[in-house]
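Consider the following assembly input.
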Amino acid sequence: MVLSNRRIYKIFLLSFSFTLSLLAQIPDDEVLFKFQYFEDNNGVFVRQPMGKIIKRLSPKLAVNAHVLVDGVTAASRQVLYLLQDTTNKKQVQEIKNIKDGTVFSVDAVTAASQKEIRLQIGGGVTYQQGNSLVTLSGTKSDENDYHSLSTAIDLKQDLFNMNSNVTFNYTRFDDDYKPLENNNDMGGSRLVNSFTLGWTQTLSSKTLGAISWGKNLSDGFLGRPYYHVLVEDTIPAITDSSSQGGVFYLESYPEERASDAIVILLRQHFQSLIKEASVEGEYRRYQDNWGLNSNTYTAEINQYFHKNIIMQLRYRYYQQVGTDFYRDRYNLHYVTAGDPQFISYLTVDPRLADFNSKLIVGKVIILIKDFLKPDIKGVFAFFPTRFDIEVQRYQRSTHPDAEVRRRRYENYDKKGLQAWLIRTGFSFNF
Amino acid sequence: MTISFQLKKFFLLLAVLAVFFLMNCSLGVPQWQREHLSDPIMQMDEDPEADMMEQHFLPYREGSGGGYGGAGGGCGC
């Protein structure tokens, strides 16, 4: 699996034990299972089981492997609306594609599957040399219309008597997104090069800080092959959500994207009224050459309720300014070359619009192994080491008028996109 | 809320300087004073697999990703 720099942080922090003299630490042997259930008010359901094993081959070498399955139901819902509009014989004349400034008709449209299975497998090798840790990993992901292969290298080096730690991650993604039975020049391949540089620092005996910078360079087909934009013949009232006569165009996107993201976080240990606790504040800034930028603010508190039971609460607020070329609604001005309102790209992807979102997370972690007395641990050799369960509530909202217009493409109501996510997991050390 | 580009650069520079200032204040936290730092509640990533799953979920509901390292490929959307 691809190790994030956060995972490197974990390895870094685990090494702060009195009994360990080295900062870099090969992870322990472990088997873990996760299961995630996701449901939103746009008709999407995802069931996601995952298994992973870590095996230490020597004090300096460890390998890991994981398998993950996504069972997605009711994906690509907009296709249904398109077909429904056609069935109802609304004034949809034809479907067009605009690419490289040229507009041409599309003979047929391949509908996305409403039920998809995505299989992801991955593995990695971690090697320790002194206070340095290097990990090579790869991940392969396959579904009926999307194939992805990613390879990564992670480097970590401690500095200043193990008070500082520098991490570097490079990941290359080779993706291929092609509709089945496609003969309409839809979809395509993309190459993404991702770089992340991080610095973690002990700021006091109770305070940790970290800063990281990430750069993504994407090239190729960066859009969604199934999705369409209705370019209306008339310019209706801004709050009118009814279907108008017009022509469907395939969405079109730039073929290059460069983005930068900076993350700064602080984590503080303190003694609460109950037991020991920690609080973390995180700020993330993102911007790219599509004109999209975002600010993310996260606050997290971890509280012991028992020496082996931790309660975690997290609140995340995300604020986004959308891309330069996104419009809630399109008319002929936007696709008429020479018109002052002409824009080169068409998309109704709500992820590229102005919006904000909130994520609230509640999680309970039970460190089971520590409940067991050393003399009976052998009896419970196959008892889980750790169990956790979390519930997440996600809400994405925009301006009410925009929601009215966008509801023709999505199924959610005025409240915006709302989702529930439940995730549970347990692990064994062996 | 709209913040000018110059102001954003200023805040960014301020944050970086603050971090490096604090680093210089306490570069010498010895290992025997790191008891609290080794506590599980101080691990910035106590559950990396959950983070990986989350970093796959959020970018497909929002327009931006990155800054946390690679998170595996695939769409699942």
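The two ends of chain A are 20 Å apart (CA to CA). Ask yourself how this observation constrains the way the partners meet.
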